[in-house]
Write a structure and sequence with these properties.
This protein has about 600 residues and is of the alpha/beta class. It folds into 3 domains: about 350 residues, no CATH class; about 35 residues, no CATH class; about 150 residues, 3-Layer(bba) Sandwich (Glucose Oxidase, domain 1). Helices cover about 35% and strands about 15% of the residues. The strands form 4 sheets. Strands 9-10-14-13-12-11-15-16 form an 8-stranded mixed beta sheet. The chain has a 4-stranded parallel beta sheet with strand order 2-1-3-4. The longest helix is centred in the N-terminal third of the chain and has 29 residues.
């Protein structure tokens, strides 16, 4: 199949734009490769320190003849998605010993849950935790004793942070080992209804808690298609997972077999063997173009419009929002998974899942087929799915047709002809919107604004009955420099209620919305942010805005607003409490949302 011309041209544009920084990065990686296996360069004292607690692996490590695998883990048992990782290090060690290798936990990285911190001060650390995870990854691998690495992480900022860290050590092969989603519980749409009833005061907190615990009820990733599961999709589309491994439930024999094989595969890709495949060669410009295409086809999380840019820059690749916008025009929406539909990721996986999606897109020229992956050369490896047999793990051809067209569809009959995300530009600045769950009649909103500098104030106004007509709610001074760009997902119930009443309503913010944002139009990640003097700082209550996801525009209709003095906000409360004191340097150094909101620049 001929490659889609837009995909080809966008990729070529990325290659050209990135040539200087990508060339410098690859030169650094080739220099690191030339040093060979790292342990031979350590002093005897250094090696003794590294192997002192290795028990039965000490002799093999001292000989330096066997491959040595580093494990970077985001394990904690507060995150349901990460709790299964508690047993992974031993599974990995046992698996590689059987093939003559060794493995050690190189280091742990922090992992926070955005679901727990929604609407709380801790959410202001969330975005910055991604870069802290990348730095922690670098600390773990800096001992320079490993031939390859596996990465244990799933959720929102963890996978992007691990990818950034892995690329700094891009001369090493890297395999990402997922934990899988929890089994299905209370349906996500039922949970959403209870949340709305609670916001209206129709049910109490006891019923709300019961519903939430019925939805989030066991080990594994939350089952809606938010940022965590979008991360898992990307790791397959970009070739860092084993094929078909993303959505296999924890605690199953297949899950454990995939973990064992992932560990063995990582060692097999090291420079000690004949199939050397460093991560710097896997994550090239084509891989990132494939990731963007997958994001569009699945209606994934808006958070990846920030994270993919930051991830790419760690490998010298420069993406911008126009790349996403152009690919969104030609990649159709092929999946409906909550909040974009009623199905959860378990239903999606059963209906054909990522293997079906990748096969459809490859057959229609919407993905680069010739990328390197941890499963071998070519993305066609990811049209297969894993099975356990009496002889062990094997991959077979996946389904060539959707098993439920209410969940995933062929390119010839998509849910919509364009992708799930839209770029908006205009006199207010540049923003993005997730449109995959927004009905077409809600994609244009023209209304007066109400301005807030805190989401709690907006919720208080709603409870006071102040929103009776059409309105665009603007929550500003929520950008990365102002307060770390927290998600504003706790506004979702009230916005949904207002839309359900028949009001025209939209959210505009220089902050983030949840990766699970749904049916209410939300123009988010507005740049320049208010603290940078963006136009969003000049508007006032009653000014008219137009949010148009169909035309891709975001405009102030009230004339001459920028002739006013810009608004200011007292941000002193953002500087302390819940560890925010320690992240002051991050707020001072962070880049804008459209450049990845990173403290690292172009590395």
């Amino acid at each position: 199949m001929t490659l889609n011309t837009t995909l080809a041209s966008v990729t070529e544009r990325i290659i050209t734009r990135s040539a200087p920084t990508r060339g410098a990065y690859l030169e650094r990686m080739r220099a690191a490769q030339s040093n060979g296996p790292a342990r031979a360069h350590l002093s005897c004292s250094g090696q003794a320190h590294a192997y002192a607690a290795a028990g039965p692996d000490q002799a093999a490590l001292a000989k330096a003849s066997a491959g040595h695998l580093g494990i970077i883990t985001a394990y904690n048992d507060m995150l349901s998605a990460h709790q299964p990782f508690e047993t992974y290090p031993q599974i990995v060690r046992d698996a590689v010993r059987k093939v003559g290798g060794t493995a050690q936990v190189a280091g742990g990285v922090p992992a926070m849950c955005d679901g727990v911190t929604q609407g709380e001060a801790g959410m202001e650390l969330s975005l910055f935790s991604r870069d802290a995870i990348a730095m922690s990854t670098a600390v773990g691998l800096s001992h320079n004793t490993f031939d390859a690495a596996v990465f244990l992480g799933v959720c929102d900022k963890i996978v992007p942070g691990l990818v950034i860290g892995a690329q700094v050590f891009g001369h090493l092969p890297a395999v990402f080992l997922p934990a899988g989603p929890m089994v299905s519980g209370l349906a996500n749409d039922e949970k959403a209804k209870i949340r709305q009833k609670y916001a209206m005061g129709e049910v109490g907190r006891e019923e709300l808690l019961k519903a939430e615990m019925s939805a989030y009820h066991g080990p594994g990733t939350c089952t809606f298609y938010g940022t965590a599961n979008t991360n898992q999709m990307l790791m397959e589309f970009m070739g860092l997972h084993l094929p078909g491994s993303s959505f296999v439930n924890p605690g199953t024999e297949l899950r454990e077999a995939l973990t064992q094989e992932g560990a063995r595969r990582a060692l097999s890709l090291s420079a000690l063997g004949n199939a050397y495949t460093p991560v710097c060669d896997v994550l090239d410009e084509k891989a990132f173009a494939n990731g963007i295409a997958g994001l569009m086809a699945t209606g994934g999380s808006t958070n990846l419009l920030i994270h993919l840019i930051a991830m790419a820059r760690a490998g010298g690749i420069i993406l911008d929002w126009q790349d996403f916008s152009d690919l969104s025009e030609v990649v159709p929406l092929l999946a409906r998974v909550y909040p974009n539909g009623l199905a959860d990721v378990n239903h999606f996986h059963a209906a054909g899942g990522l293997g079906y999606m990748i096969g459809e897109m490859l057959a229609n020229g919407l993905l680069h087929p010739d990328t390197k992956t941890v499963a071998g050369d070519g993305l066609s490896n990811y049209v297969t799915e894993p099975f356990l047999t009496d002889d062990g793990l094997e991959w077979r051809s996946g389904t060539g047709q959707s098993l439920n067209e209410g969940i995933c569809r062929p390119v010839s009959d998509p849910f919509q002809p364009t992708g799930g995300l839209s770029r908006l530009t205009g006199s207010l600045g540049t923003a993005v919107m997730k449109i995959s769950a927004v009905a077409e009649e809600h994609r244009i909103v023209e209304a007066p604004v109400r301005i807030f500098h805190d989401q709690d104030d907006a919720k208080a106004a709603f409870k006071a009955g102040e929103f009776t007509g059409d309105v665009i709610i603007v929550v500003r001074f929520q950008g990365p420099k102002a307060n770390g760009m927290p998600e504003l997902h706790s506004l979702t119930p009230m916005l949904s209620i207002m839309q359900g009443r028949g009001q025209k309503v939209a959210l505009v913010t220089d902050g983030r919305m949840s990766g699970a944002s749904g049916k209410v139009p939300a123009a988010i990640h507005v740049v320049p942010e208010a603290l940078d003097g963006g136009a969003i700082a000049y508007i006032q209550d009653g000014d008219m805005l137009r949010v148009d996801a169909l035309a891709g525009t975001l405009d102030i209709l009230t004339p001459d607003v920028t002739k006013r003095d810009p608004a200011t906000a007292d941000l002193s409360a953002n500087a302390y409490g819940m560890g925010r004191e320690l992240f002051s340097p991050f707020r001072q150094l962070v880049g804008s949302a459209d450049t990845g909101a990173s403290v690292f620049g172009d590395l």
